[in-house]
């Protein structure tokens, strides 16, 4: 597991002020099971409030998702954010596009996501810090379910 990995139960437990105090200016945020439930069309009021608070505090946010274009664009538009679909995480290309969209250096950006082998691995490959959140729900893509089994091998807290 990368040494810079931080692990929290919920997005709403991440404090934007703490990140800003650590020199973070931008977030690359995963969509499914991080910001909203798999198949949901909008984040919960709590997560919408968190996005608003993070932006209000001065953090810029780009959504980066392996999900398809129309769904990602719709959710991004609803939040007034830039969204990048079909990201093929953990491959670096999408992360680098998101970092370019933020116009920041890798050390100023934190990737937040619920998967070790897409979000966290991709962040690490691109020299960015990652924060792992617990998935909002159990439903996922079939491929993700395979990754989940692997996650349980390396994350004791997911073995329950
Ligand atoms: Mg996810």
Query: In whole angstroms, how far apart are the ends?
Result: 19 Å
What proportion of the residues form beta strands (DSSP E)?
Answer: 15-25%
* Mean of pLDDT: 93
Number of domains: 1
Give, in order, the helices and strands.
EHEHEHEHEHEH
What is the number of strand segments?
6
Largest sheet: 6 strands, parallel
- The largest sheet has its strands arranged as 1-6-5-2-3-4
Structural classification = alpha/beta
Stretches where pLDDT falls below 50 for ≥5 residues? none
- Identify the CATH architecture: 3-Layer(aba) Sandwich
The CATH topology turns out to be: Rossmann fold
**What's the overall geometry?**
globular
Structure keywords:
160 residues; alpha/beta; Rossmann fold; six-stranded parallel sheet; globular; binds magnesium ion
What does this structure look like?
There is one protein chain. With 160 residues, the chain is an alpha/beta fold. The chain has one domain (6-158): HAD superfamily/HAD-like (Rossmann fold, 3-Layer(aba) Sandwich), CATH 3.40.50. Helix content is 40%, strand content 16%. It has 6 helices and 6 strands, in the order βαβαβαβαβαβα. The protein has a 6-stranded parallel β-sheet, with helices on both faces. α3 links the parallel β3 and β4. It is globular and about 35 Å long. The site of magnesium ion has 7 residues, from loops.
């Amino acid at each position: 597991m990368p040494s810079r990995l931080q692990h929290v139960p919920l997005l709403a437990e991440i404090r934007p002020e703490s990140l800003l105090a650590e020199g973070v200016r931008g977030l690359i945020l995963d969509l499914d099971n991080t910001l909203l439930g798999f198949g949901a069309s909008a984040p919960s009021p709590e997560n919408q409030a968190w996005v608003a608070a993070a932006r209000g505090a001065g953090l810029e946010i780009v959504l980066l998702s392996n999900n398809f274009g129309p769904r990602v664009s719709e959710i991004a538009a609803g939040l007034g954010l830039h969204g990048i679909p079909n990201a093929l995480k953990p491959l670096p290309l999408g992360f680098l596009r998101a970092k370019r969209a933020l116009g920041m250096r890798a050390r100023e950006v934190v990737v937040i996501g619920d998967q070790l082998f897409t979000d966290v691995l991709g962040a690490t490959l691109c020299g960015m810090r990652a924060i792992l959140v617990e998935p909002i729900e159990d439903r996922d893509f079939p491929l993700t379910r395979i990754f989940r089994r692997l996650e349980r091998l390396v994350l004791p807290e997911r073995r329950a």
